[in-house]
Amino acid sequence: MSDKLKDIGVKVEKPQGETVSLYAAQKKIYPRSAKGVFANWRILFVIATQLVYFGLPWLQWNGRQAVLFDLVSRKFYLFGLTIMPQDFVYLAALLMCCAFGLFTWTTIAGRLWCGYSCPQTVYTEIMLWIEEKIEGDRNKRIKLDKEPWSLRKLRIKGTSHGIMILFSLWTGFTLVGYFTPMQDLLKAMPTFSYGTWETFWMFFYAGFTYLLAAHMREQVCMYMCPYARFQSAMFDEDTLIISYDEKRGEPRGARKKGQEQANLGDCINCGICVQVCPTGIDIRNGLQYECIGCAACIDACDEVMVKIGSPKGLIRYTTEAALEGKYPESAIVSRLKRPRVVMYMLVLSVIFVAAIASLSMRKPFKVDIIRDRASLVRETNDGLLENTYSIRIMNVSEQVQTFRIKVEGLEGIKLVSEHPQIRVEGMSNELVSVRAQVAPEIATKGSHEIHFTIESLTNEASVEEKSSFIGE
């Protein structure tokens, strides 16, 4: 009984009253490198994601950084698109698309995001590559860690972790480059004259990259990641998962190549599927929440099956229903039409189409109109009633625009302005004061609705804003 409690991690008290902690300490996992189709896909995704992450801040667009989140100026630049604080609805739409996209993909194919594109998986994979290149393969790493500390071990470990730290610092430097132009960061590098927040986030992100990817690794996926806990709510018997074919593999037993044993299954109990697993689980025990869907066990098992002359696929991507024989594996694609998948895809499509449509109809400028409340109404020398308005024109495009202002809503209303046309530089704004004048017999006492029309003579676009005229 005590051994069972120890396995699940609880505290018990000895009869003498001494309290002993039975929480198992972290046991370092030494994943064995796997070769195969899925391993190549993982390499491809690691390279692709890092090219995007490290490359985007260096791209230039119209004389500025292509992707820049300028928090000081409250402007987000995404290539030719500029997002202002008023446009944060698009950020909400992006987050919703990511969420429902993840839900949809999880329902269809399980944790493929975790196994191929999750930053924790990607950076752990990179750290493992560094470790393997410097410290050697799985057996050499295990042997090295068991050795007592020596100059040789210190040199190897120091080199390995030194490169990991440099890589982590590079990731932190790149993160800051999304918020501060890369050219400015490079100029400040020789003297390290960075701002307080730039320095903080550079080392904060680098530190956590090193901590999570170089040390904690699978512990993050197993104990810290919330997705591992709620993924089961999106799984069903038609979800594509990595499974061990127990009917074909059992009973397990070792044999020589080409040896036929009628009483044994195809699994030779070599344990390589466990050795290559980055979270250290045995897929033969069934689907477990620790499985990140990386398919390293599939590559490893297929390689063994080829060597012993058995068909591949003892461990494979399949569904629970197909594995139980409810339908052939050739029918898995047809199960994509089930209600859960259709609903997720429908919601995702609606949000995506709405966001794209809104972006396509987005005006290249924005307008704010404020009526002067200090002097509601005054009478001019011509006997007209006059209200004063402040109009702020925000040019959200990168080209210079020229604007013209009109007003309507009351008979005979006219606009008086010192600037018949307003020129606004790209990505800047101008505050213009204008006066609207109306005859007293038209603007009777009270508030009257009027409309300002601001036209862009450059883009042939216009914005109409409602305001009010106070009569007496």
TrEMBL record:
Key words of the record: 4Fe-4S, Electron transport, Iron, Iron-sulfur, Membrane, Metal-binding, Transmembrane, Transmembrane helix, Transport
Keyword Transmembrane helix listed: yes
Signal peptide limits: none
The keyword RNA-binding is annotated on this UniProt entry: no
Pfam families, per the entry: Fer4_18, Fer4_5, FixG_C
Annotated 4Fe-4S ferredoxin-type domain residues: 258-286
Segments passing through the bilayer: 37-56, 76-103, 162-179, 199-216, 341-361
Name of the protein: Cytochrome c oxidase accessory protein CcoG
Organism of derivation: Vogesella aquatica
Name of the coding gene: ccoG
